[in-house]
Specification:
By secondary structure, the chain is α+β, with helices and mostly antiparallel strands. It has a single domain (4-117), classed as Immunoglobulin-like (Sandwich). The protein has helices spanning 4-15, 91-98, 121-140, and strands spanning 19-29, 34-37, 40-44, 47-50, 55-64, 70-81, 102-112. The longest helix has 20 residues, at 121-140.
C-alpha cells in the first residue's frame, strides 16, 4: 500500500501548491475622491481591493467638498481586466496548483481629476436660451 515515504511525498507536493492573488489599485490626483466599482462604493482613494474574476468593470470617481458640492468633474471608465497568459488552460493548472510560488497580479489605475468650473447661473441660462433659439430656428427652417 502506501509507505510513509509516499505519504510524506504526497503531503509535500500538495501543501506546496502555488496560487495567484489578484488585486486592483485605484489612485487619484488629488487623493480623497470617492471610488465606485460597478456602482458600489469602495471608499476614498487610494483604494486597493482583491478581485476574483476577469472582465469589464465600471469605475466611477467623484470628489466633493464637505458641503456635498462636486469639486472635480465626475469620471467614469470601463476597465477591461484581461487574464494573463498563465491564467488560461492548461497553464493555469501550474500557476494555481503546482508551482510553489504566489503570483501577484496587481492592476493599477491612476486618474487625474479636473476641477469643476463654476459659472454664474445667469451666464448658463443665457447660453441655454441662445442654444434653444438656434435649435428652434433650425427646426422651423424649410428643408432643402
Amino acid at each position: 500500500m502506501w509507505s510513509s515515504c509516499n505519504i510524506l511525498l504526497f503531503i509535500l507536493i500538495f501543501s506546496a501548491t502555488g496560487c495567484v492573488t489578484r488585486s486592483m489599485v485605484i489612485n487619484t490626483d488629488p487623493p480623497g475622491a470617492k471610488v465606485f466599482l460597478d456602482d458600489e462604493l469602495l471608499g476614498e482613494s487610494p483604494v486597493k481591493m482583491p478581485f476574483t474574476y476577469h472582465g469589464v468593470r465600471k469605475i466611477t470617481i467623484e470628489r466633493r467638498d464637505k458641503d456635498g458640492k462636486l469639486t472635480h468633474k465626475r469620471l467614469t471608465m470601463m476597465a477591461n481586466l484581461k487574464p494573463h497568459y498563465y491564467e488560461f488552460f492548461p497553464a493555469d493548472i501550474f500557476s494555481e496548483l503546482v508551482i510553489p510560488v504566489t503570483i501577484k497580479d496587481e492592476r493599477v489605475f491612476d486618474f487625474q481629476l479636473e476641477p469643476v468650473e463654476f459659472r454664474p447661473t445667469k451666464e448658463i441660462r443665457a447660453e441655454l436660451m441662445k442654444d434653444a433659439e438656434e435649435l428652434r430656428q433650425r427646426a422651423l427652417a424649410p428643408e432643402p
